[in-house]
Amino acid sequence: MTTNTNTTNTTTTTTTNNKMGGGVIEAEYLWGVRGEVGGCVVHVDQNTVVYPAGAFLVLHNTTSHHQQFVSIAEEAMPTALAISPKRQYLCVCRGGESPAVSVWDVEGRKRLRFLSCGEMTSDHYVSAAFTPDEKMVAAQGGAPDWTLVLFLWEKGKVFSVLRLSDTPGLGPVASLTCHPEDNAILSVVGERVLKLFRLNDKLLKTWGYQGGHNYNSECQVWADQHTLLVGTDNGSVLVLEEGELRTELQVSHPQLPPSEKRASSAKGVAVPVGSGPCHRRVTALVVFSGGFLCACGPDKVFVFQKSDDINEHYFQRYMLRVCEASPAALVSGRGEHNITALTLCPAEKTVVAATHTNQLFSNPLPSLDAAKLPSLMFSPLHARLHEGGVVDADTCLWKPVVVTGGTDRTLRVWDYQNHTLLLTHPFREDIFSLALHPTGLHVAVGLTDTLRLHHMLFDTLRVLSEVRIRRCCACCYSPGGSTLAAADGHLVILTSTITLKKLHTLKGHTAKVSKRSHSRVTCTDKVSDLGWYPDGSAVIGCAEDGTVIGWDTCHGQSLWQVTSLESCKYLAAGLSLDGNATQLVGHEGAFTEITGGQMVQEMNCRSGGEVVSASLSPVKTLVAMGTSTGHLLLNKFPLHMATSTFTTIPAHVGPISKVVVTGEEGRVVTCGRDGAVVVWRLAELNDKSPGFLAARERLQDLPSVPEMLVSREDLERTRDRMEELEQNVSYQVRDKEVHLGLQQQEFLASKDALLARHQAEVDKLHQIIQEGERERERLEASHREALEQVNYEHQGVLADHQQELRKKLLYEYSKQDKLETKLKEMQLNLDRQVAEAEHRTREELQQRLDQQDKVVTQLTADLEKTTTELERERTEGAEVLRLVEASTEAELGQVRSSLHAQLVEEHDNVIKLRSERAALRKNFVSMQRECEQKEGEVRGLVEERGRLQATVKGLEREVEALRREVNHRDDIIREREGSITISREQVAELEKQKFLLQHQMDLLREELHPLQAALDLRAQQVKQLEEEMGETRLVVGARERQVKELSQKVATAGKTGRHLEQRHHTLATALTRVLADLATTTHVLHHPKKLKDAVKALNDKYIRSGRHKEFWTRPDLDKLAQGASSDLEVGVMGEDTAVPELLRQREMLERSVATLRAQAVKQAAAHKDRVTSLVKENRELVGRVRVLEERVWQLEGQTRQLESVAGLRDPYSGKRRASRDHLVQQLAQQADTITRLTRQLRLAQTQQRGGEGDGGEMTTKEVKEEYPTEEGGLVKEEKLVMPLEMSQDNTTTTTITAITTTMTVTTTTLSSKHQHITLPSRLPALDPRIPPQ
């Protein structure tokens, strides 16, 4: 949705796709197509075609004629369409300042990509095509550079670009297509252009035929992966195979002009003389499985069929016509339809063609095998459309019709409810305006020289009257239909539609004139539009000078006038919700509401283009406007209800010439200069709408009159035609009866022949059945022998399998015992190793603790001794100083100098000690951080220990489950062995039963021999009965034919009797007339002359005229009656009494035979089922044993894998290391050790914090040592060296040797191939005063 903001006093316009906000209006149906678009019609599925019309892509169903719409507002100027090979995607090329290519999803009805190329200088694309894999789109640009662009549309990138204008001598390019299988091959044709390109490393290079400059090509299509067909402008089709020209097919027809000859250059190369005539241009090609269709010349499509001859590729078969050309079209060319696009449905059943005159035609694809085609003429896809723009349109109140007039000089009547075309009427003059009577039975058309009133009949228009108004630009019927208002320059003429006389000439608009050539004066400020009050009491006219005048229709006087407008080009009148007549007039983007001759409100709208037409829907409070850019503007009306935002809907490509709201205000019809007629559906009013009450009052009782006018001449002509057709039908019925009689005789003759042939075939089938019986007995014997052999072999195989299974089971049992013994040994070894490792660890820890206690004791004693010596030396030094001061002052200088030197030295030492203390402090802080990190590691190890314990528990559970499953499998195996034993016993019993059944079958065979003999006897009797039945059927058929012949004779006799009665009645009437005439003649017996004349008159009347020839040529009625009576006396003979008895005996014999056969088949099937069931059971048992073996192997493998993961088994050698219980015990002891060491660590840290002095700081150093153990592991020792520093006053500084405290943490690592069980390697220092637990 985009919004455009204009200057002051200008509203904003909102653009939508198809629906107004809230679903107020939506497109319902559209008549039209844009034939100038390249490939304008394509099939997307079996029954749906897509073509551009107006501002939409129309998806039209060719069977139900339903339509769906996809708005292409951004592609408002499409120049070419292309469908992908799988019909999943549609490519739409648009023109304009920024030409682009868009790819649409056909099923989803949405656009996927919008592609453009910055290297193009053209403003449009002429053709496009998809590659076979549908990943790339090739688009051919137009003049002047003719750039060929290859897009990777899924990524939205340009893959390759080729500028064809760089090749000299190339003309305009007409078509582009891709190879049906190779993504790298493209072909381009045009005027003096026929190029084949191959894609190589993102570059398009020419290959193949290089003589394309000799032809002006129009279209092309790939017939298969090897053949390319190219249509030229001289009525020929070039056939290229593997990139080389093979032949040139000429389209031949008597109505086509001869092709132009080509001149030869000096070098002997044929060059085109010029572009071919338009009547011979091949404009479209489409391929089907048996050949191709070629559109050549106006209204003609030629069908070419594949030839079996290698030298002759195709030959011309049929010609189809789009429509019959009128005589005027042959002279002026007007009305011809040059086909621009052909499309074939995927099933190759329907062909759809589009023409340059914006028409769509369809026809079934003709069969190449049919001797006679169903139709050689295309029919409109749905209706004949306007071939040019629509000039004017109008609708009525009584009928759901809309009338449109176009620049093609035709008037068309559309039914907007049923979406059909009712009437098309051509004119010899241009149409300027039209008006439809409210009843829908009359229409007024403004032509070049006159305004003509017509009756609208059901199939044509009939002229009613004419009003001498030249180029009437506006006319309108009154709401009641009694008056017609027409604009004549600056005047308005009122004409009565009842008396057909002029009522008033209304004046008021100024007539500014301008002189033209040949002394012709033309009015410039003429009336542009007309409207009526809803009650018909006044007519309103607006002129280009900006005046709007209302006239009284009764007196012809002006009621009011508004002259403050700059100009007026359109006017819309209606009845507002409050019952007042209101009008909307305007020019370009400014419009005004007028009520009662007063301007109520003004409004501007310039964003959607210049407004050229408007219409009101008063009940639904809606105003619809059409702009010069093809947009439909919608807003509320009256204008005080209107919003500042107009809803803009793209509807047409060019200007909208007329916007009409239907009488029931349920639809809006827009007509444009692009020739499209669009029907829009308005939403129904709800209870809260302001016009709901008015709609209920005004629209609920609207008349609906579907009748049309019919003239008496048309009715009489139709009646005569009906009588003629009835007479033809009677003749056809009589001829058909004769033909049926002859066919009946032929049928009876052929029936006898068929019966004889059938009897021979029955005998042959009996022989085949007997042979089949013998073959069946032979196959049964062979089957029994094969079954015995299979049973014998099966018993041997079963015994071998059982023996192998026992061996495998014994081996598995022994293997399992060994594994259990090994598992126990490994568990014992693991427990012993864990106990030894724990004992050794405890001893080492105790030794380390004892050493630490000794070191601490020694350091404490040294510290006390050093403190005592320092106190003693301090006391002695003070006494020495006093004695020295008292005794000698001479030595003071020496002492001072020496002390000064010592002081300097001590000061340097203090500075060094302070720097060392700072370094030690830093080391202490880092060691504290490391201790914290180690505490975190300890916590992680504790968590890991918990996870390992959970894993061990899970493994224990799995091992226990595996043990249970192994036990369960053992039970199953034992059960299977028992079932196998039972199966053997059953097999033995079955063998016994088999022997008994064999004996019974032998007995049955012995019993069947007499039955078979009886059966053969019965079969012979049945055969005799069938022969007798055949004879009986022949007798019955003969009797039936006699009955039919007698019934026909009776019917003929009845007809003859009725005819004789009618003839007798006619003769009696004639005799009565003769007697009456003779009685009249007796009155002139005394007048010889009159008597002579009377006798002559009687002779002429009855003898010479031949009316009553029956008097002297009377047939022999007695003989005819006697023949009829003799025919009626023939009776129908009764049927022979022996036939039922024969049928009864035959039925009894057939039942006996069927019973015996069923018994034999049943016994054989039972025996076969028993044997089959035994074989199946044996197979199932063997299969189950094999499944159990595989399961045992799988369980053993899983057990080995789990033991390797748990560390109980070496993955390389497969030997077990220790038992599972020993490993669990070791892990539990290690967890206890970790817990105890953690408690000692926390207590030691607490005591160290309490024992630190004011100036004392401690720094630790870490020393790592590791040595191997007896079990193969590694013991790591980490020693933390902590120096202790103490300082005195500034004057006396004493360096104390560092106190080293060593704390050892032992970590034992047990490693294996798949998993490591590791105890913490870094723990804080332990307090030596805490004894081990």
Describe this structure in words.
Residues 1245-1270 are annotated as: Disordered. WD repeats lie at residues 402-424, 649-682. It comes from Petrolisthes cinctipes. Residues 1259-1270 have a biased composition (Basic and acidic residues). By secondary structure, the protein is of the alpha+beta class. It is built from 8 helices and 66 strands. The strands form 17 sheets. The protein has a 6-stranded mixed beta sheet, with no helix packed on it. A 4-stranded antiparallel beta sheet has the order 3-62-61-60, with no helix packed on it. Strands 4-5-6-7 form a 4-stranded antiparallel beta sheet, with no helix packed on it. A hairpin with a 5-residue loop joins strand 52 (570-575) and strand 53 (581-587). Helix 4 (891-1081) crosses helix 6. It is flat, with a radius of gyration of 58 Å. The two termini are 82 Å apart. Residues 1-22, 261-277, 326-333, 513-523, 1114-1118, 1127-1136 and 1252-1333 have low confidence and may be disordered.
Query: How much is the average pLDDT?
Result: 77
SS field, number of helical segments: 8
Total strands: the figure is 66
- Strand-residue proportion: 25-35%
Distance between termini? 82 Å
What is the alpha-carbon Rg in Å?
Answer: 58 Å
What percent of the residues sit in helical stretches (DSSP H or I)?
25-40%
Q: Sheet with the most strands?
A: 6 strands, mixed
Structural class, by secondary structure, is alpha+beta
Shape: flat
Strands side by side in the biggest sheet: 1-2-59-58-57-56
Runs in which pLDDT lies below 50 for 5 or more consecutive residues are: 1-22, 261-277, 326-333, 513-523, 1114-1118, 1127-1136, 1252-1333
- Oligomerization category of the chains in this entry: single chain
Coiled coil: 708-789, 816-876, 910-1007
Keywords: Coiled coil, WD repeat
WD repeats: 402-424, 649-682
Organism: Petrolisthes cinctipes
